[in-house]
């Protein structure tokens, strides 16, 4: 799955920018509160408006403090997947439960330096694991390949049937880096600047998807 991040889109033309990536599997929406990360983007009212203008499932990535308070309303509004950060709460399982109760899928995200081992046990409460491959806060940063060990570890648990979840990666994904992520067993690839920085974002989504398919074919043969 390819999930273009509208963080790199023109915020004054979000409806058109969403149409420009028709064919995307999910639309990745970065919510930042200027506390958990040193940047501020958009919040629930904008997401509610986006939901009215697209049929593509919204993948809301909450880079915010106190997700227990703020995350469930995104699910209630109709976001398909609501991801929050493991570093932002003492009780991720309770937050996941509340997101599910509000009708959404729940995702757990870990920053590049956060180990995954302490969270492996609780991942069965989640639908998505979002591995950050840049420090959260800004688009256009360079991919950190070391985080792929986390994707590989969780992939193994999914393949062995111990876990059922989507392994998603976010940060620095482009035509050059997507191959390594696909090899590590990632299912869903977020790409912001690599998609919106090109003249034909929909064609870029398709090219990224082709690259993943090619890589998976090569890995299997
Ligand atoms: C960064 C965000 C990403 C961002 C990725 O904190 O979570 O979703 O949009 O942008 P690129 O693909 O440009 O690294
Ligand atoms: Zn994101």
In brief, what are we looking at here?
This protein has 9 helices and 8 strands.
Structural description of this entry:
The protein has 221 residues and is of the alpha/beta class. The chain has one domain (2-220): Aldolase class I (TIM Barrel, Alpha-Beta Barrel), CATH 3.20.20. The chain contains nine helices and eight strands. The chain has helices spanning 14-19, 44-53, 67-70, 72-77, 92-101, 148-159, 178-183, 193-196, 201-220; strands spanning 2-4, 27-32, 58-63, 81-85, 105-110, 128-132, 166-170, 188-191. β2, α2 and β3 form a beta-alpha-beta unit. The protein is globular, with a radius of gyration of 16 Å. The two termini are 21 Å apart. The mean pLDDT is 98. The structure holds D-xylitol-5-phosphate and zinc ion. The site of zinc ion has 6 residues, from β2. A divalent metal cation binds at residues 28, 30, 61, 170. This is Ribulose-phosphate 3-epimerase. It catalyses: D-ribulose 5-phosphate = D-xylulose 5-phosphate. InterPro entries: Aldolase_TIM, Ribul_P_3_epim, Ribul_P_3_epim-like, RibuloseP-bd_barrel. Catalyzes the reversible epimerization of D-ribulose 5-phosphate to D-xylulose 5-phosphate.
